[in-house]
Amino acid sequence: MIPEDIIHSFGGSLKNYSKDRTIFNEGERADFYFQIKKGHVKMFNMTEEGKEFVQGFFENGDSFGEPPLFGAFKYPATALALDDSEIYVLPKASFFTLLKTHPEIHLKFTKLICKRMIYKAKIAREVSIYPPEHRILTLLHHLKGSTKSDSSFEVQLTRQQISDLTGLRVETVIRAIKKLEKSEALSIIDRKVFI
């Protein structure tokens, strides 16, 4: 999102996080901006039953964990490196100076945060009142909408990741996807889901 040379010019550094290393914990104070150069990150909460509820997956070029910087509140979720990752880290004060100096980047963040808020609102509604098939379709349509593609869209998530993002069990996701295929709401080609 932010060009690497700009991150460096404002005092950002590139840090290495090994697979399964925690980047920050839920409840910690938000002091840094994070942007992935290479790797994958998962943000999640643990339920009282010990099940993970995934807030999002992030990959090369994505930033994560920004809302607490803007709202001056603690991290609402834990971030974990899913594989060996290289992540830019920029102190909060430097991040805000950067945004003031580059209003076009600030506008990108405003749009990104709004997009994430819409996603959270959709998922909160889905989890509270709709059956599994509806929850999965809402997630998949949201992902497809992010690409602005009118053609068939290949879902890049595993069944486990869909489970984590919808709060459903993997077995329920598998059954629901088969049911959605029978109703022609989606298609499965070579074990990949298309919508």
Give structural notes.
GO terms for molecular function: DNA binding; DNA-binding transcription factor activity. Residues 15-116 form the Cyclic nucleotide-binding domain. Keywords: DNA-binding, Transcription, Transcription regulation. Residues 130-195 form the HTH crp-type domain. This is Crp/Fnr family transcriptional regulator. With 195 residues, the protein is an alpha+beta fold. It has 2 domains: 4-119, Jelly Rolls; 131-194, Arc Repressor Mutant, subunit A (Orthogonal Bundle). Helices cover 44% and strands 25% of the residues. The protein has a 4-stranded antiparallel beta sheet with strand order 1-8-3-6. Helix 3 (92-101) crosses helix 4 and helix 6 packs across helix 7 (170-182). It is globular.
Can I get a quick summary?
This protein is α+β, with helices and mostly antiparallel strands.
CATH topology of the largest domain: Jelly Rolls
Return the CATH architecture of the largest domain. Sandwich
The CATH homologous superfamily name of the largest domain equals Jelly Rolls
Helix content bin:
40-55%
Count of discrete domains: 2
Mean pLDDT: 90
Beta-strand residue fraction: 25-35%
> Mind summarizing the main beta sheet?
4 strands, antiparallel
**How many angstroms separate the termini?**
27 Å
Topology pattern, helix = H, strand = E? HEEEEEEHEEHHHHHEE
Total number of helical segments? 7
- Kindly report the spatial arrangement of strands forming the biggest sheet: 1-8-3-6
Poorly predicted segments: none
What structural class do the secondary elements suggest?
A: alpha+beta
User: What would CATH call the class of the largest domain?
Assistant: Mainly Beta
Number of strands: 10
Shape: globular
Rounded to an integer, what's the Rg over CA atoms? 18 Å
Organism: Gelidibacter gilvus
Protein name: Crp/Fnr family transcriptional regulator
Domain HTH crp-type: 130-195
Keywords: DNA-binding, Transcription, Transcription regulation
